[in-house]
Amino acid sequence: MTSSTKTLRVLVVDDHELTRCTLQLALSLQSCIDVVEVATNGKEAIAKVQNHEPDVVVMDLHMPVMDGWAASNAIKTEYPHIKIVAYSAADGGKAQAISNGANIDAFCDKGACTRSLLEAIKSVA
Prior knowledge:
It is built from five helices and five strands, in the order βαβαβαβαβα. It is of the alpha/beta class.
């Protein structure tokens, strides 16, 4: 992403409130990110995507109601241009996420620092 590129609209999807709030705050402080929406599960994420059409979705993979695997596939089917960064503590990282059916553009381990997540977001934007 270059300095002339527009700022990004990001949707954070995670069933843990502390994770959602922390990421929303951390990402909203970045000059390259304009809007940070949140959702608590995959079903809610799909509705938010339909209403706000973010540039990037930061998606937890293990959630109730609808998990990140199903949600990533549904979003990519309808909105293939939206980038999805899986943000998960899933064993095996990106390879495991993809082998389990996640349709994602990048992976960031939940144990990584916020800077790593920001780099993953920028890498797909």
